[in-house]
Design brief:
Blueprint: H1 2-18, H2 23-49, E1 52-54, E2 61-63, H3 70-76, H4 85-97, H5 108-123
Antiparallel strand pairs: 1-2
Helix pairs in contact: 1-2, 4-5
């Protein structure tokens, strides 16, 4: 799934540079798509960690318990939604400018670091 979504993102990215006068709108859409992709990937990783497996018969998720603690999962599968408004806005702006790769959103720690750097550069 993610591979196809990234193709859409790449196409939007190309359009943002080709369509005169549409750069901001298309760039914003591609940024929002990147955020959604990052959140979806984290959700899939979370399901995998707690034992979510996909049934080959009907495509529905079946769950089995693992020995991963909920505290461990919570610390690893945080969301950028937990960032305060200033950091989230700075991160979105940095993504819009192309200063931060959307790949950073796959890892919460990297997303937080990127948000802190973006906020620091705005206040400097």
């Amino acid at each position: 799934m993610a591979k196809h979504v990234w193709r859409v993102y790449a196409t939007l990215e190309q359009l943002s540079w080709q369509e005169e006068g549409q750069w901001f709108t298309t760039r914003r859409i591609s940024t929002i798509a990147a955020l959604s992709i990052g959140e979806t990937e984290r959700a899939l990783e979370y399901l995998e960690d707690i034992g979510g497996t996909e049934s080959s018969r009907d495509g529905e998720l079946e769950f089995a318990l693992t020995d991963t603690s909920m505290e461990d999962l919570a610390s690893r599968h945080d969301s950028i939604e937990d960032l305060d408004r200033e950091r989230r806005t700075a991160l979105l702006d940095a993504l819009d400018r192309g200063d931060v790769s959307p790949q950073k959103l796959y890892n919460v720690d990297e997303a937080r670091e990127a948000a802190d750097r973006a906020l620091g550069s705005q206040t400097a």
